[in-house]
Amino acid sequence: MDVVNLSEKFGRFNDYWSPKIAGEINDMYVKLVKLKGEFVWHHHEQEDELFLVVKGRLRMQLRSGDREVGPGEFIVVPRGTEHCPVALTDEVHVVLLEPKSTLNTGNVVNERTISELAHI
Amino acid sequence: MDVVNLSEKFGRFNDYWSPKIAGEINDMYVKLVKLKGEFVWHHHEQEDELFLVVKGRLRMQLRSGDREVGPGEFIVVPRGTEHCPVALTDEVHVVLLEPKSTLNTGNVVNERTISELAHI
Fold this sequence. Notes:
homodimer; 9 strands
């Protein structure tokens, strides 16, 4: 049973918008992801998605208005809710918590879709 | 859709070993809890349990040997695994992530069992 140090894990990869699996709790994964720039608008049909910011500043764009999330803060985007994350700082480090079935681009499949995630 | 600031939420309560619900993701709750001293040995039959330390230092006592968890670190205790958390510092602030069905004392029911959790 390993103790996972978030900072050490984030130091192990440099690619953006490519979540890595850092733990699992029943049917959920804990994923680590680095964000830069803007993602794509999408939603998840069945999955709620938690974004916990550990470094940098995230804007969660929503059709109902944007939310800003800083270090030590989280937001839960409920299933069915269109969203588009944007990194407000050069780089944002995010801990994601979401069902194992969650695809990063949700209902959209494009060149940013990653269906096989690495473990870290 | 609220942005949850962990530090602000931890400032709202002062009781120990009494998890507060701060969010939900499908069938999981995010809970905040303050630890002081030692808890009780227990396990959860069906539920894995994630402990993310945000302040202080936690020792997770396990039959296989203890693990220490500091700020910015997490450990997942798998279902069926006996464990007993101990605060190594005066107070430890922990984000828990676990299925909604999880009882704080697991298979043990005693004076420290809390079956109705407050939302925060």
